[in-house]
Amino acid sequence: MNFFNKVTAHLFLLTLAISASGCSSNFTDAINSALEARTINKGLPITAEYVNSLPYASAIVKLNDRAPILIILSSAEYINSKYSYSLTWLSSDKAAIVTENGRIVKTIGLTGNNLEQLFTQNHNGPPTPGTSKSWHAIYDWSPGYRYNFTADIQSKTHGSEQISTELWTEQTEHTSEIVFFESLNTSFTNHFWKVPQQGSYKSYIIKTTQYIGPNMDKIEMLFIKPFLEPISATENREATQ
């Protein structure tokens, strides 16, 4: 799917370097920069050349049936207990999406419902899509006191699929997950497209379609300039042993 022929949303140019700390002050700075940029770049189309020139990781996001927008990675925080990065993606209207291994684990500033937290029963980070056939998740939502909704998740592999944009073509592994809430007697299906490990970088999610909850917002994300995590020297040694 080529988004560049469809996206005519405002450019959200941030003058914020990616922060490795993810602290609240950096998040506030990111919001302020985005608000300033909204006026400066209003009405300009998002082009492949513009996205390629950005020094930041970025994604094109579509919320339900709304026009796609460009969001920028504002912070990347490594969580030791989860052995993964928590990535915060920011738009200029103060909305944010937090992902771990491509999976949406929190949303901020969406109208209607927001995902407050997605975690496993042992409070570890959820598994990378495609690495576990079944697992249990716990969802918290706002507004209202809607905490500790347990879901049974069943994963299915759909094989290899090619995804192309004007910037790249990638061969991916397509995985779907059926998320079933027994207490609510309802379910939804999320989809993930993962690029296998390449060279000195770990595998990563390049495209997703996810719901933040049953009968809640659908979020489509295309990581047009993905966050690439290098493989450590230790991991390289273990892989060759």
- Gross CATH architecture: Beta Barrel
Oligomer: single chain
Question: Regions with pLDDT < 50 over 5+ consecutive residues?
Answer: 5-43, 236-241
Q: So what's the overall shape?
A: globular
Give the overall average pLDDT: 80
CATH topology: YmcC-like fold
**CATH class division:** Mainly Beta
The total count of helices amounts to 3
InterPro entries: GfcB, YmcC_sf
Organism: Marinomonas sargassi
Pfam families: YjbF (PF11102)
Protein name: YjbF family lipoprotein
What does this structure look like?
The protein has 241 residues and is mostly beta strands. The protein has one domain: YmcC-like fold (Beta Barrel). Helices cover 13% and strands 45% of the residues. It has helices at 24-40, 48-53, 233-240; strands spanning 58-63, 69-79, 84-90, 96-100, 103-108, 114-120, 134-142, 146-164, 169-181, 186-195, 204-211, 218-225. The protein has a twelve-stranded antiparallel beta sheet with strand order 5-4-3-2-1-12-11-10-9-8-7-6. A hairpin with a 6-residue loop joins β11 and β12. It is globular. The termini are far apart. The model is unreliable at 5-43 and 236-241 (pLDDT under 50).
Task: Describe the SSE topology.
Layout: H1 24-40, H2 48-53, E1 58-63, E2 69-79, E3 84-90, E4 96-100, E5 103-108, E6 114-120, E7 134-142, E8 146-164, E9 169-181, E10 186-195, E11 204-211, E12 218-225, H3 233-240
Antiparallel strand pairs: 1-2, 1-12, 2-3, 3-4, 4-5, 6-7, 7-8, 8-9, 9-10, 10-11, 11-12
Short description:
The protein is mostly beta strands. It has three helices and twelve strands, in the order H-H-E-E-E-E-E-E-E-E-E-E-E-E-H. 29% of the residues are buried.
